[in-house]
Amino acid sequence: TIMQAQLHCFYLLTLYLTTGYGQEGMFSGPLKPMKFSVFEGQEPSQIIFQFKANPPAVTFKLTGETDGIFHIQPDGLLYHNGTLDRETRAVHKLEVSALDAHGATVDGPVHITVEVKDINDNRPMFLQSKYEGSVRQNSRPGSSIGTLVARDMDEENTMNSVLVYRIVDQSPKSPTEGLFLVERYTGMFQLAKQSLKKQDAPQYHLTVEVSDKDFKTLCHVQINVVDINDQIPIFEKSDYGNLTLAEDIAVGSIILTIQATDADEPFTGSSKILYRITEGDSEGRLGIDTDPQTNAGYVMVKKPLDFETAAVHNIVFHAENPEPLVPGVKCNSSSSAKFTLIVTDVNEAPQFSQQVFQAKVSEDVAIGTKVGNVTAKDPEGLDISYSLRGDTRGWLKINHVTGEIFSAARLDREAASLYRVQVLATEVGGSSLSSTANFHLTLTDVNDNPPRLVKEYTGLFFCYPLKAPGSLIFEATDDDQQSFRGPQFTFSLGSESLQNDWEVSKINGTHARLSTKHTDFEEEIYNIPILINDGGRPPLEGAVSLPGIILAVVFIRMKNKGKDNVESAQASEVKPLRK
């Protein structure tokens, strides 16, 4: 329409006047990658460029980081209709595509970069609204107090972000103005003209300005004048006399309150008092805590007192400040005091040297062998009598005088590999007080258990007459401690006369197969003895009897070599293993 044509001409005229691209077609051209620079803060409706379409392209499309500000008209006029802000986005990456009448892309998209140029539109700001520092009295001029820090959001390393600091006010102005200096470009704060005295002013309030070329910001700075430590702590009395305590007084008990004073400024490192014991407590049984409000010292028990170690302690303690004294000032005898601690005896139970005693022996040690010993002492030096508690198997006995422990019966690792008992130490005479400790005896294994069948095998038979050789599988075990590989048993027939009819073959370390070698068997019960060897040190061999049954009830007998006892399983219903 006529109105749109007039608007288009207005845009072109604006582009010509604002960008200087009016010559040689620099304000318009074909679709290709381009880079533009636009200052932030400009009024909306600013034309950037006029793209020309080549047939069959008839219109254009804009995508990318438009932020709802950048637009393109169908005829290729690229413009922005909002105010740009470099601090929000410094570079906008756009893409322009040329489309045909059907909306299909015929050219592009091409990359269009718009850099937003900085203007000074941000006020410098201090990181804190108030700064606080301190300077010790008598500090030399030039002493550093701290650094003020401000930031400007405008582009770094440009005139827009160069900041300048200066002091605009000092209160109070005594003894003179200009007592402080802030470095113009770094913000470093320091003492300027002369040393300060707290008597003149304990505190100064300053107003500091930071500015760039267009904006200014103020902040408040508080400078505290800190008293120097030129006064020593002085005890209110030098001797706190004698103090008598029982040795069983509870740890943590406060036993004495001491007091020193300091004439330096209250509640500072120059006047706070720390108490330290310098003599009479080499084992650190006492400690002193300071009341932060009154500087009173509370002497307390940190470790149990012990009459038997030392009955009398001549305690000397010293008062000092966490802040060092100024040169030329030293503590003297007024900063030290003493008291005498007298510890009285209390009858105490015997004390074991440790709470758990451990020993290790082989399970086959002879009865009466020493397997360990325990030790305890009575603080008062009384004799001690030892006894056992919890010896449920009756395996041990203890020498009541020496604390030596002996085996009293045959030990068995398979029954208890770790045997635990309590030992009781009772003082002889006095109050017969007692205490307990634990004795743990670890038993190491010896090969003392022959192999045996893992279960009772009953109800096994072969159908008569045999049509093919038959077999059955059985499993063996052993109660001794096994290696990580497990048992490695070997199996053999117990009689050479059986070798024509039967055979035993090993399957693995615990299983074997008993098989018939032919089918020509009579209908009767066959007792097949089998030897199982564990290969241990020394090797033990178990003899078991597996009845091979032909249509009959079953009995299983097991016999340990070297023993006369025979275990017989009860008859049970026969169950076919193979037909």
Task: Please give a quick description of this structure.
By secondary structure, this protein is mainly beta. It folds into five domains: 26-117, Sandwich (Immunoglobulin-like), CATH 2.60.40.60; 125-226, Cadherins (Immunoglobulin-like); 239-344, Immunoglobulin-like (Sandwich); 351-444, Sandwich (Immunoglobulin-like), CATH 2.60.40; 452-552, Immunoglobulin-like.
Verbal overview:
By secondary structure, the chain is mainly beta. Helix content is 3%, strand content 45%. It has 5 domains: 26-117, Sandwich (Immunoglobulin-like), CATH 2.60.40.60; 125-226, Cadherins (Immunoglobulin-like, Sandwich); 239-344, Sandwich (Immunoglobulin-like), CATH 2.60.40.60; 351-444, Immunoglobulin-like (Sandwich), CATH 2.60.40.60; 452-552, Immunoglobulin-like (Sandwich), CATH 2.60.40. The chain is built from 1 helix and 45 strands. Strands 38-41-42-43-44 form a 5-stranded antiparallel beta sheet, with no helix packed on it. The protein has a 4-stranded mixed beta sheet with strand order 1-3-6-5. The longest helix has 18 residues, at 2-19. It is flat and about 120 Å long. 23% of the residues are buried. Mean pLDDT is 85; it is low at 1-25 and 550-579.
Q: What is the radius of gyration computed over CA atoms, rounded to a whole number of angstroms? A: 51 Å
Q: Tally the structural domains.
A: 5
Instruction: Return the CATH topology of the largest domain.
Output: Immunoglobulin-like
Number of discrete helical segments: 1
Could you report the average pLDDT, rounded to the nearest whole number? Answer: 85
Largest sheet: 5 strands, antiparallel
Query: How far is it from the N-terminal to the C-terminal residue, by CA?
Result: 107 Å
Q: Which class do the helix and strand fractions yield?
A: mainly beta
At CATH level 2, the architecture of the largest domain is Sandwich
- Overall shape: it is flat
Q: How much helix, percentage-wise, in residues?
A: under 10%
Strand content: 35-45%
Q: Briefly, what CATH class of the largest domain?
A: Mainly Beta
Domain Cadherin: 58-126, 127-235, 237-352, 353-453
GO biological process, one term: homophilic cell adhesion via plasma membrane adhesion molecules
Membrane topology: Single-pass type I membrane protein
Keywords: Calcium, Cell adhesion, Cell membrane, Glycoprotein, Membrane, Metal-binding, Repeat, Signal, Transmembrane, Transmembrane helix
